[in-house]
């Protein structure tokens, strides 16, 4: 069986045999930018193929038709993860995976070879329908290995919203269909605002893809979308270039309330840590501190224990934020938390998900009001 055509050429079994072994399979990277700071914070890995049929869609469609989708996707993910060593420090890498191949042995082998997966974002593609409940075990294992989860959402229909509720991704990607012409469509703007509120509540970041015009970029920044990618910001390439000077100036014109590159760093406070909740309670009682953060084996914060003995899950309670978050964005995310948690300290992490320190809400408010705040060294 063959599939995928380009000017009379098709992707045949021999082509797939070569590709699943990495022959003629290349990875291009498209930059993902922090729209507030005009800086590259990550890359999306995109498969490219040599030969007369260059369309990635044709290759993956052919693999699916031949029953080799899992093999080809595993080869693409393996090649993408190999690029991690070449990335600048403190950048994440997004890889695309069809949910129906997550449990395939060849894909599981790729994850094992590349573990730990800190700094890796696994984006669930939606070319084919899937039942999100059937992939929960695989997603739990990926999270345990340090990976983040991303999911596409066009904002259409109950099924998409239900998927967000079940999967609880770290990133919600707004696809080109919703981004296109957003500057001229109040309905799209309202839908993106709704997704932003939802993302704040479940501790997920919005990432707009397919940004192609300055007007779309302007509208998305006005809506508070923190991350973006698209041809305007940088095209996929073997060695991607930084954003152009003009678009960088446009993004930087929106930067206020904090100095370039610092985010929440000036407000960080050291905090005692423990390996489990019981040990954290002992630290609270022994040292008379008001907060202890429980870390997992990868130094990622999982729980907080306060002086009253109250235990809160860091992610589920909306307590966690990247340390480079803009203070105004941090305040927006904090204020939509549950009323009982609204004024709890923010637990800040670096791009690898490791604890950087905490930011108390009073210090954040002082910063936004222009009142000087004393900086303490961050926890290492």
Under CATH at level 1, the class of the largest domain stands as Alpha Beta
Q: How would you sum up the global shape?
A: globular
Strand percent estimate: 15-25%
Going across the biggest sheet, name each strand in turn. Answer: 3-4-5-6-7-8-9-10
According to CATH, the homologous superfamily of the largest domain is EAL domain
Largest sheet: 8 strands, mixed, barrel
Distance between the termini: 55 Å
Instruction: Give the domain tally.
Output: 2
Named at the architecture level, the CATH assignment of the largest domain is: Alpha-Beta Barrel
* Count of individual beta strands: 17
Helix count, DSSP H or I runs of 4 or more residues: 13
CATH fold-level label of the largest domain? TIM Barrel
Radius of gyration, whole Å: 22 Å
Low-confidence stretches: 1-6, 256-260, 371-380
Would you write up a description of this structure?
- With 380 residues, the protein is an alpha/beta fold.
- The chain has 2 domains: 3-252, TIM Barrel, CATH 3.20.20.450; 265-369, CBS-domain (Roll).
- It contains 13 helices and 17 strands.
- The protein has helices at 13-20, 56-65, 69-82, 105-114, 136-144, 157-167, 176-179, 186-202, 214-222, 245-252, 277-287, 327-335, 361-369, and strands spanning 3-6, 9-11, 25-34, 39-49, 92-97, 120-124, 148-152, 171-174, 205-208, 227-228, 273-274, 291-295, 301-306, 311-313, 320-322, 346-349, 355-359.
- The strands form 4 sheets. An 8-stranded mixed beta barrel has the order 3-4-5-6-7-8-9-10. Strands 11-12-13-14 form a 4-stranded mixed sheet, with helices on one face. A 3-stranded mixed sheet has the order 15-16-17.
- The termini are far apart.
């Amino acid at each position: 069986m063959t599939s995928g055509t380009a000017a009379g050429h098709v992707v045949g079994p021999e082509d797939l045999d070569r590709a699943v072994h990495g022959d003629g399979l290349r990875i291009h990277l498209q930059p993902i930018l922090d729209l507030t700071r005009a800086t590259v914070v990550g890359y999306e890995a995109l498969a490219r193929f040599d030969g007369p049929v260059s369309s990635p869609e044709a290759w993956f469609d052919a693999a699916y038709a031949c029953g080799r989708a899992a093999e080809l996707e595993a080869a693409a993910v393996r090649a993408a993860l190999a690029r991690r060593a070449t990335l600048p420090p403190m950048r994440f890498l997004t890889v695309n995976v069809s949910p129906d191949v997550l449990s395939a042995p060849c894909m599981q082998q790729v994850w094992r070879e590349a573990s730990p997966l800190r700094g890796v974002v696994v984006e669930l593609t939606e070319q084919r329908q899937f039942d999100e409940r059937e992939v929960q075990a695989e997603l739990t294992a990926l999270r345990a290995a340090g990976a983040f989860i991303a999911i596409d959402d066009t904002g259409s229909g109950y099924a998409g919203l239900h998927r967000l509720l079940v999967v609880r991704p770290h990133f919600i990607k707004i696809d080109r269909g919703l981004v296109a012409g957003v500057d001229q469509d109040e309905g799209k703007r309202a839908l993106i605002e709704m997704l932003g509120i939802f993302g704040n509540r479940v501790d997920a970041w919005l990432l707009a893809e397919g940004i192609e015009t300055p007007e779309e970029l302007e509208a998305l920044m006005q809506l508070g979308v923190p991350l973006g990618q698209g041809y305007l910001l940088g095209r996929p390439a073997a060695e991607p270039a930084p954003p152009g000077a003009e678009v960088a100036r446009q993004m930087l014109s929106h930067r206020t309330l904090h100095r370039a590159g610092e985010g929440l760093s000036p407000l960080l406070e050291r905090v005692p840590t423990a390996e489990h909740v019981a040990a954290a309670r002992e630290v609270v009682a022994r040292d008379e501190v008001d907060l202890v953060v429980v870390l997992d084996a990868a130094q990622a914060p999982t729980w907080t224990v306060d002086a009253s003995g109250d235990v809160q899950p860091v992610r589920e309670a909306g307590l966690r934020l990247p340390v480079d978050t803009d203070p105004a964005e941090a305040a927006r995310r904090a204020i939509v938390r549950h009323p009982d948690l609204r004024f709890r300290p923010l637990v800040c992490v670096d791009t690898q998900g490791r604890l950087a320190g905490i930011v108390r809400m009073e210090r954040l408010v002082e910063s936004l009001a222009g009142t000087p705040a004393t900086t303490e060294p961050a926890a290492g």
